[in-house]
Amino acid sequence: MHPLPVADTMVHRCxxxxxxxxxxxxxLNMSVQNKxxxxxxxxxxxxxxxxxxxxxxxxxxxxxxxxxxxxxNKYHTRFNAMIPLSAQISDMPYFPHGLNxxxxxxxxxxxxxxxxxxxxxxxxxxLADSNFGAPNIGDNVYIGAGAKIIGNVCIGDNVRIGANxxxxxxxxxxxxxxxxxPRIIEHSEDRDNAxxx
Length: 197
Prior knowledge:
Layout: H1 6-41, H2 46-58, H3 62-79, E1 88-89, E2 103-104, E3 109-110, E4 115-116, E5 121-123, E6 136-137, E7 142-143, E8 148-150, E9 154-155, E10 160-161, E11 166-167, E12 176-177
Parallel strand pairs: 1-3, 2-5, 3-6, 4-7, 5-8, 6-9, 7-10, 8-11, 10-12
């Protein structure tokens, strides 16, 4: 077999190196995609989310900080949640159902050992003529699924807030907040409960 001329050898090497460079770039992109996919599949790993959040808040390296913020935003989009870095949270709350639908105001304050169920809103009130501000939640507070805590309210320590309650007033320590029992309407005839699209 005759060796390639020197010029042909150089062209062959250049094409190989550019091909290898593209392959290397493709492999790098695939590894980043796999990491993001693996990250998004960690549905129940709230501890990992909290680690990302702490890294995003406390990292001295801008690139690492932005990378963690990028992953946090992916997490927020995946679970329709928002817990901003500016919210003052003393300790990682316990999320029995993950972060599904949990929204926290940028100015909210949350104490230690809190339990927050899914679809909870801890929101600010931005209307000047009403209870303007964000909630301040004490320690060891239990917030049931779907509860809404809105405005400049102070929730004391050891408070229980039942499912779907709307809280717009201060709650003192060791209190329980529940909804009124639902009204029951009885009907004498059978009813058609089929859904018609």
